[in-house]
Amino acid sequence: MSYGLSPRRWRAAGFTLVELLVVIAIIGVLVALLLPAVQAAREAARRSECLNNLKQFGLSVHNFHDTNNRLPPAGANDEAPNFGRGPAGDRWGSSWFVYVLPFMEQGTMFDKFRFDGSGSGWGADAGHNVTQAQNAKIKNFICPSSPLSIWCRGPYNGVREIQAPHYVAIAGGAANLLPTATYNETRINTGGSTAGCCTGGHHSSSGAIIAGGTHSLAALTDGTSNVWMVSENSNFVFTVSNTKQDYRSSAQHGFIIGWRSKCTPPSCGNGNDQRTFNFTTVRYPINHFSRATDGLPDAPGNCGTHGVCDNASTNYPLNSAHPGGVCVLSADGSVRFVSQTTALDVIGRFVHRDDGLPVTQ
């Protein structure tokens, strides 16, 4: 029986197409707004980890100083406890990384190294120390933001898996960093041998951790908080054709070797092999050569002109993949992030240990 009522019309629950598209659009906008914040938070965490790595270097260097009453050399020479003995005159000393290994919970590796110059290293020798360091992965050597490999290019005595740190000791500053009317830096060598492989760029011993020699913290008369000791070499440099290159001073042979010449600048003559590994003389602004407009030549040749090439970058700029600057360790053990806009003459006051000039940052 019909009572004249129309059948009830039921609407299925759910979104219409238009409503669904609106929801998707809103989600897309929210993601677009949140993604930069998430990326910034992740980079902040990576930068914090990088600063902590430098803090650990500071502790290890100070522990070395407490034990030996001196800072470690940036690179030992062939009269110091050395990394190895190859053909006549081919004796490379250890880098500062090697000397601080016992203070970075790497004493087991350090105890296996030989420092007697007999069958211990580079060139014609068997490569004992290289074998001990093979495949060792030290966490504090790695900047989490760096796009660079953690291994050296090698092969190095037939071994490629030697860690190449993303950090570098600061041996001092080139002569052009400070106005000559105010300060005249004389602890500089430029050049090296005439061979293309061995022309070294600008070398300084005006900093905290120097090649072929050493001193105590008391030599830092500018004050330990005013002298930079370690920073980053953790990003590519670019050529004028926008080709990226990994020319950092650890890239070729890893963390083990540092210095070959039996001298400390300025006493190194042009007949010496002045390539340096794992330490730098600051010559350029932070993050220099980071784009084609200020890039290196596509074929830089030897290291003498720019101090930056594929086989020992004496003047590789302090650089990083952190947006806007680099992380730096001062000699008092403090760490900070330094802007890439910092003027070169200001940087110069921080990388010389005893220039006596006021610092502002």
UniProtKB/TrEMBL annotation:
Gene3D superfamilies, per database record: Glycoprotein, Type 4 Pilin (3.30.700.10)
PROSITE patterns reported in the protein's UniProt record: PROKAR_NTER_METHYL
Transmembrane portions of the chain: none
InterPro entries found in the cross-reference section: DUF1559 (IPR011453), N_methyl_site (IPR012902), Pilin-like (IPR045584)
Domain spans labelled DUF1559: 39-343
PANTHER family according to UniProt: GENERAL SECRETION PATHWAY PROTEIN G (PTHR30093), TYPE II SECRETION SYSTEM PROTEIN H (PTHR30093:SF2)
NCBIfam families, per the entry: IV_pilin_GFxxxE (TIGR02532)
Protein's name in the database: DUF1559 domain-containing protein
Natural source organism: Pirellula staleyi (strain ATCC 27377 / DSM 6068 / ICPB 4128) (Pirella staleyi)
